[in-house]
Recover the amino acids of this structure.
């Protein structure tokens, strides 16, 4: 069942709330907002970048009237995290869209509350980040697989490329890329940290790759269509076998290593 900030919405031992089967829609699915470019004289259209829409989840909760105020306070929190008891390693930040109360008379002892939550990121996220690497880079072009089980795109990852790489280009299986814009005068103990959440890049040390030292955002560029991202790559013939795949291309490979820190993403279901 579902919890908000670790407080159960169903069979709550303190307030007795119950999620009703009728009126609850917790399976969100996937809806895409597509871009169509039409040119006179060409049949059909040219495909442009598309994005997943935010997802809406609806709970119909039975509550005693004296437990109504705590329920409304819980769902109206500014930093709400939705979770499922059968998937304790995942969570989804949400915003409250509405909470409507269905009661016939002011003295009703129990009421129905229809709670509509919106998940802006359209995905469950792993609570604990997964770190891949440091992966030693010994070839001008090297493939790195990561994030087993991924089923939704990730844009808020941290990427660190350390060592004397000259220049680099990191490409996702979707074609999204992150690259340097000029030669990088690096060393065996330093590198570039890219923070996907903000799109900034920083000088960092290999001993502490996630700690920014100074801003070097002018040294990197990202692809269009939303920038760099990690997307699911399906094993041929088996959609249950998924992972992310990155290809790192470098000019030189002296003490070069790649590290990625990201919270896995899963389609809401």
């Amino acid at each position: 069942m579902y919890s908000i900030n670790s407080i159960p919405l169903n069979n709550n031992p303190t307030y007795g709330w119950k999620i009703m089967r009728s009126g609850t829609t917790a399976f969100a699915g996937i809806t895409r907002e597509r871009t169509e470019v039409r040119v006179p004289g060409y049949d059909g259209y040219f495909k442009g970048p598309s994005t997943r829409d935010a997802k809406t989840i609806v709970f119909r909760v039975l509550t005693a009237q004296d437990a109504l105020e705590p329920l409304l306070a819980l769902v109206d929190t500014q930093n709400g995290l939705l979770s499922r008891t059968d998937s304790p390693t995942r969570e989804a930040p949400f915003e409250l869209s509405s909470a409507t109360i269905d009661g016939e008379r002011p003295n009703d002892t129990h009421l129905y509350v229809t709670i509509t939550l919106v998940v802006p990121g359209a995905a469950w996220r792993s609570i604990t980040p997964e770190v891949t690497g440091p992966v030693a880079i010994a070839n001008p072009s090297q493939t790195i697989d990561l994030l087993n089980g991924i089923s939704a795109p990730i844009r808020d990852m941290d990427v660190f490329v350390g060592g004397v790489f000259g220049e680099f280009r990191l490409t996702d299986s979707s074609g999204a890329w992150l690259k340097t814009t000029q030669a990088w005068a690096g060393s065996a103990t330093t590198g570039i940290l890219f923070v996907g959440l903000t799109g900034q890049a920083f000088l960092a040390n290999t001993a502490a790759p996630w700690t920014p030292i100074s801003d070097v955002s002018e040294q990197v560029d990202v692809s269009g269509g939303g920038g760099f991202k990690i997307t699911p790559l399906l094993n041929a013939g088996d959609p249950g076998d998924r992972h992310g795949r990155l290809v790192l291309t470098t000019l030189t490979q002296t003490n070069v290593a790649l590290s990625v820190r990201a919270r896995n993403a899963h389609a809401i279901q």
